[in-house]
Design brief:
The chain is an alpha/beta fold and 352 residues long. Among the domains are: 31-135; 220-266; 270-315 and 322-349, no CATH class. The chain is built from 10 helices and 10 strands. Strands 7-1-4-3-2-6-5-8 form an 8-stranded mixed β-sheet. β3 (62-74) and β4 form a beta hairpin. The protein starts with a helix and ends with a strand.
Length: 352
């Protein structure tokens, strides 16, 4: 009886152990996709960030597979083989992207697959999925540590600056700790107030019409005089414009008219003719002058002159002959010789 009980206990223990073993194998196999069909897909990473074989592959928040294998191809390429359960593979498309994520701040690494578009088709065995840049928690932590160090250094510098301001003698320290600037500002303010008082007094005098400036501003007599002067200037300018216009007309008539003066200015032949006529007139005047001199020196003219003197009972006196006066003339010169001096004047023409 005792042996039967022992055998029964042993059988129950072995059966329970077998059941536990079968359940454990099933659970492990289901987690590792040992008892369901799968598809292997690949992705190439530069840095897998601590990913190991057996980590979960997650799609839309659901564990759809595991990391089956990791191979280093080169120093910049690590190929990760992912085993995807076939019943989930129909939701993953060829243009889906892969990135390495993390389960919480301190959790393990996982592979995250994003959804693609149905037009590219579902994934097939040995397909390659494009890698997308994921969130690097470790990189963020390192960057945060660097920022903390820089912030600590900045705070230290600020503490040093504040110590120098509180205890130093620089401009900012003097501004904060001393009252010299305040005193100077007070003095400047009082001077400014005094200046403003003087300005107000001056403006009051100007407003009341005192002084030349006040009269200039308040009295309209000067303005009226200035207006009259401006009107006279305007009238003068109008008259000046009229004179200038007449001068312009005269100049235009001289330059482009048909009278004698325009011809004298612009006609060379006429100018030469006028010059020749003037020369001839000068020559004629010279000849007439010589003829007058000849007549004055003739004996007939002197005879009649003596008789006239006798008839007037004037006693002639013998005097020495006057020395003839000589002077030179140029062609074109006009000579007027008095009759009583013609006998003593000798005219010589300067030869050209």
């Amino acid at each position: 009886m005792k042996n039967t009980k022992k055998a029964l206990r042993l059988g129950v223990f072995i059966a329970a152990a077998l059941i536990l073993f079968i359940v454990a194998v099933y659970l492990i196999g289901s987690k590792g996709n040992l008892f369901s069909p799968t598809k292997d897909v690949f992705s190439s990473f530069k840095d897998i960030r601590g990913l190991v074989v057996g980590n979960n592959v997650r799609f839309a928040g659901i564990n759809v597979g595991t990391v089956k294998n990791i191979r280093i191809i080169s120093d910049t390429s690590v190929v990760v083989t992912m085993s995807i359960r076939e019943d989930y593979s129909k939701y993953i498309y060829k243009n889906s992207t892969v990135q390495i994520g993390q389960e919480g701040l301190m959790g393990g690494k996982i592979v995250l697959i994003s959804s693609g578009t149905p037009e590219t088709g579902v994934i097939e065995e040995n397909d390659y999925l494009v890698v997308a840049e994921g969130l690097d928690i470790q990189g963020m932590i390192a960057q945060a540590q660097k920022m903390l160090r820089e912030a600590t250094q900045t705070v230290s510098n600020l503490n040093s600056v504040t110590d120098k301001i509180n205890e130093g003698d620089g401009d900012i320290a003097r501004l904060l700790n001393g009252n010299d600037l305040t005193t100077q500002l007070g003095i400047a303010t009082r001077k400014l107030n005094s200046s403003m008082s003087d300005v107000n007094e001056i403006t009051a005098k100007v407003s009341s019409g005192q002084g030349d400036l006040g009269k200039l501003i308040n009295d309209s007599a000067i303005t009226d005089q200035l207006s009259g002067i401006m009107e006279e200037l305007h009238t003068t300018s109008v008259e000046a414009n009229a004179v200038i216009e007449e001068l312009q007309q005269t100049v235009h008539a001289i330059n482009y008219g048909e009278g004698v003066l325009p011809r004298l200015l612009h006609d060379k032949d006429l100018g030469l003719s006028v010059d020749t006529a003037i020369t001839r007139v000068d020559q004629g005047v010279f000849e007439v002058t010589r003829a007058a001199e000849t007549i004055a020196d003739s004996w007939i003219f002197r005879l009649f002159s003596k008789k006239k003197k006798v008839n007037n009972n004037q006693t002639p006196s013998v005097t020495a002959e006057k020395q003839p006066k000589e002077f030179e003339v140029q062609p074109g010169d006009t000579i007027i010789v008095p009759l009583n001096e013609s006998a003593g004047t000798e005219i010589k023409r300067k030869e050209p």
